[in-house]
Automatic annotation (TrEMBL):
Annotated stretches, region: Disordered: 175-218
Highest taxon above the source species: Eukaryota
Transmembrane regions listed in the UniProt entry: none
Biased composition (Basic and acidic residues): 175-186, 209-218
Start-end of Basic residues biased regions: 194-207
Any one Pfam family match given in the protein's UniProt record, by short name: Retrotran_gag_2
Endpoints of the signal sequence: none
Protein name (database record): Retrovirus-related Pol polyprotein from transposon TNT 1-94
């Protein structure tokens, strides 16, 4: 978690908090105070993002980043324990991760990569092979055929995650084209049925009209 704080340049706010604003503060001091308050809010938001819902409930009443951080240290004894808590949450999320029915391959891969990067930040690396195996067992049913093909024809241990993504996106494109063609055929069939029905209705109307004219003549 400290890596994130250093990257966001908020360590000073985390450790020292926001300085009190004096009554007769200058414009420069007021501007600096405003910037500190903004950084404090940003840091508190980062802390909220790095903990699970159970931990969040324990720090929700803290209004400053320093206050929330001190409470976390008192509860869990430092950054290493916080990493373990976060990692447990991430591992559970990773195990439950599944591709959504309306989700694209690109979007799903982004979720996989984001989650594995978060795990890495907490001390657990995920190899390309592990990511590939995770993807292959968590895709939607539309990809069953290509998954079997990849597993039978590729050596997964030598495969790159990017290579898998390219293969799946190509299959995804073919699926979209196929579905588009089916929709066109269905639409044409519907229009044909409608035209036939409309034709029959017109023919019936003409017959009825002719019958009425004959009756009027007699």
């Amino acid at each position: 978690m400290k890596v994130i704080f250093r990257f966001q340049d908020v360590v000073e706010i985390l450790n020292n908090g926001v300085s009190e604003l004096e009554t007769n503060a200058t414009e420069v001091q007021k501007t600096a105070y405003k910037d500190q308050r903004k950084k404090d809010g940003k840091t508190l938001f980062l802390i909220h993002q790095c903990v699970n819902s159970d931990v969040f409930e324990k720090i929700i009443e803290e209004e400053t980043a320093k206050g929330a951080w001190e409470k976390l240290k008192n509860l869990y004894g430092g950054d290493e324990k916080l990493k373990k808590v976060k990692l447990q949450t991430l591992m559970k999320q990773y195990e439950m991760l599944q591709m959504k029915e309306d989700e694209s391959i690109d979007a799903y891969f982004s979720r996989i990569v984001t989650l594995t990067n978060q795990k890495k930040a907490c001390g657990e690396s995920v190899t390309d092979l592990q990511k590939i195996e995770k993807v292959l067992r968590s895709l939607t049913l539309d990809f069953d055929y290509i998954v079997v093909t990849i597993e039978e024809s590729k050596t997964l241990s030598k495969m790159k995650l990017e290579e898998l993504q390219v293969s799946l996106e190509a299959h995804e494109m073919r699926l979209k084209q196929r579905n588009s063609e089916r929709e066109k055929v269905a639409e044409q069939a519907l229009q044909s049925r409608f035209s036939k029905k409309a034709g029959k209705e017109k023919s019936k109307q003409r017959k009825n009209l002719a019958s009425d004219e004959v009756k009027q003549e007699h």
